[in-house]
Amino acid sequence: MEQRLALPRQRSSSLILLGFALLCVASLVLGGGPDYGQLVATLDQPLSRLRWIVGDISEVAFYKHELPALGLLLGASLAHWAQQRGHRWQGFAICYGTGLWPWLIISSLLGLLLSHALWGWTLDGGAWQPTFVAFVSLPAAMVLLFGGGWRVAINGALLGAVLVTPASLLLVNYLCYPLQLPVVIGNVSGMALASVLAFILCKRFPALVRDGQRPEVAATASQPDYGLVWTLRRVLADFSEAPFFGNELASLGLLLGVLLAYVLAPSAPAYGSQLVLQMVAGQGLASLVGVLFWRRQWKERGWYPTYIPIVSIVPAAVLTLGGSWQVVVASAVLGALIAPPLAVAISRRLPGYMHGYIGNVLSMAISTLGIVPLVGLLAGGNP
Q1: Range list of H helices, the chain
Q2: Which UniProt keywords apply (predicted)?
């Protein structure tokens, strides 16, 4: 197994990361950092389309920019390197200590590129489209559930591009846009429905995931004390949970990237909303409240989905209702208290051949649908 894992660890993943890093830097230097409106208006140009594709990597956190995408990938690469060498500063072991990060990132990136090859034409109409969804959904979940290897990675990417992306496209365009719902509801609902179908196919046709390589999860050196330092680390790691990284270095790269993008061009990240600071503050508060309130669950289970409001409720509320402190605080607190236990309740009822992330994304959809209008009422605005 170690010999078979060596290729993607040492060569493939490094080449992919290097290529994306060069593309990100080139797009920043050559493109001069246009704002989001300019980006959308020029998607027929190769450089702008490239920026959009790379920006999809940070789309799950609602940042939509190549700098946080680059930061996320570089931070995750550093975390994986540190994990392989046993450095204490690696933080929480990336990809939950499975050692599957090279396969996971290969499958996720391939799913993203295939999605653009098949569905990139949907951007021609000038409206935002969920082209990013395959990067943070089924391909990664399949690798974590069935193991690494080219068969699982490629089939996960194919199913992500063929099932997840069109499902989210349909829900966004024929449900969210007509009913004026936050598009995240369509994004994550598409992930859930398509992933259910994909896992049923994998159960019916096991050859799709045959010979998946499942290295043992790395043993934890010592039981965490769940004190102040652990709490702050956990809050930071939550920012990179959605792409299944769950690591402080990856999150730090993501956050430094979006803050740098905001400083260089405030109208470039986060869809040109200029609400980056309010969004990040709400996301951090949501994770902090969740980690503190659900500390007992963290202790008993070892992991709990306190990241959910970071990538759904809080940014959806801020973008829909504005960046007032009432919106930021209310969405963060309500999201932190409601979404994680709902996700666990749904995941418990899933069959064993399905990854539990399906419960997480369903919780995002349900919680966003219910909480955002409530926040609008509490904040004194229109729901």
Answers
A1: 2-7, 13-31, 36-41, 46-55, 66-84, 101-119, 138-146, 150-159, 165-171, 177-179, 183-204, 228-238, 248-264, 276-293, 295-301, 313-321, 325-348, 357-378
A2: Membrane, Transmembrane, Transmembrane helix
